[in-house]
Amino acid sequence: MITFITGNQNKLREAQEILGNINSHEYDLAEIQEVDARKVIEAKILEAQKRGLSNFIVEDTSLYLDGLNGLPGPLIKWFLDKLGNEGLFGLIGEKSSRATAKTIIGYYDEQGNVTYHEGVVEGEIVPPTGDTNFGWDPIFKPNGHEKTFAEMSSEEKNEVSMRRMALEELKKHLHEQGK
Amino acid sequence: MITFITGNQNKLREAQEILGNINSHEYDLAEIQEVDARKVIEAKILEAQKRGLSNFIVEDTSLYLDGLNGLPGPLIKWFLDKLGNEGLFGLIGEKSSRATAKTIIGYYDEQGNVTYHEGVVEGEIVPPTGDTNFGWDPIFKPNGHEKTFAEMSSEEKNEVSMRRMALEELKKHLHEQGK
Fold first, then answer.
1. Contacts of A37 in chain B (CB under 8 A)
2. Partners of residue A98 on adjacent β-strands
3. pTM for this one?
4. Scanning A7, A57, B77, B145, which has its CA 20 to 30 A from the CA of A28?
């Protein structure tokens, strides 16, 4: 059975809905200081592998702001921590409000092969609107929608979720591998 | 002899001027993703220690902006990388231009004792002025001075350098230890 290395129950539930029977384990994998999400994932995989783990997935979801030349990317948690959604929105000012939300899942299989599976959603940064209980959801409005992630129901959000897309990509890969 | 774990020749030279005979070694110590510089230093020490090193120093110099609630701190290199000094200055906008530059040196001695030595300089963020060859020097003007770090001669800058202060603190400590 695949192990999802995460302490986040919401992420685990989403993964279970799509992949079926997976379990999770919360390992304290240090995130390296890096704006390239792929490298963050690679470092996590390396660390988990060093601990003797196999057949596992790790995940990173990052937010890239055009107006900040791609910042914060994987550094989003610190921006939120220090500035909140209001402050993050304020940073944009007169600059472009275009933004990209991206999930990368790294899968390390029983044979030691690593594959990456991405989901990308384009959108824009708007004044905070909606429920404030999940990260930057209140300021991200996906293109083609009139609501921020925070204003959507779980069903609506799942329809456009970058994490769901990445999980679907992984599912396809597992299927091709006969798993 | 103390080993300074750094690949930066300028930092090594400054340390040699103050501490005398030290050598350097460039180890590729991954920086963890953290806005608390002390934790960045702790992680570096732990990693160097795991590799069997002893009697060494590691260093972190961070820039904390009041207007961004303390960001970027140790994340400064990514802000510079993505935004440059002009973009970093632009982030401040109407917000407070007060800033704090801080160097922390962690010293791991032959007995496995760890001590921390800090140098702090208060100042403000100004439009980029002066030589652009060293980090955020063009936008940092220390309080009580009319020039940015980038406009100062090395002698002038050394007089107010947070790194020099931290090195002097370490020197005092070494002296007290009879080293």
1. none
2. A124
3. 0.85
4. B77
Instruction: Write the pLDDT tens digit of every residue in B99-113.
Output: 999 999 999 999 999
Is A78's CB within 8 Å of B71's CB? Answer: yes
Residue A23 C-alpha from the chain's centroid: 18
Give chain A's domains with CATH numbers: 3-176 (3.90.950.10)
Q: List Cα–Cα distances, B173 to A15, B12, B116, in angstroms.
A: 53, 19, 10
Hey, which residues does A59 pair with through a beta bridge? A105
H/E element, A175: helix A162-176
**How far away is chain A from the Cα of B17, in angstroms, using its nearest Cα?**
30
Select from A33, A45, A68, A75 the residue whose CB has the most chain B CBs within 10 Å, as the one to mutate to test that interface. A33
Strand B72-73 to B23-25 pairing: unpaired
Tell me the shortest Cα–Cα distance from A171 to chain B, in angstroms: 30
Pairing status of strand A56-65 against strand A98-108: antiparallel
Chain-centre distance for alpha carbon A26: 16
Query: For B14-50, what is each residue's pLDDT tens digit?
Result: 899 899 889 888 877 777 777 789 988 998 999 899 8
- Residue A123 tokens, joined: 């959108």
The reply to whether A78 touches chain B by the CB within 8 Å rule is yes
Contact with chain B for residue A74, Cβ under 8 A:
yes
Say how far apart CA B44 and CA B51 lie, in whole Å.
Answer: 11
Query: Can you tell me the distance from the alpha carbon of B29 to that of B45, in angstroms, rounded to the nearest whole number?
Result: 9
Residue A26: pLDDT band (50, 70, 90) is confident
Burial state string for B111-123 with b = 16 or more CB within 10 A and e = fewer than 16: eeeeebbebebeb
Instruction: Return the amino acid letter for A43.
Output: A
Q: Is B83 on the interface with A (CB under 8 A)?
A: yes
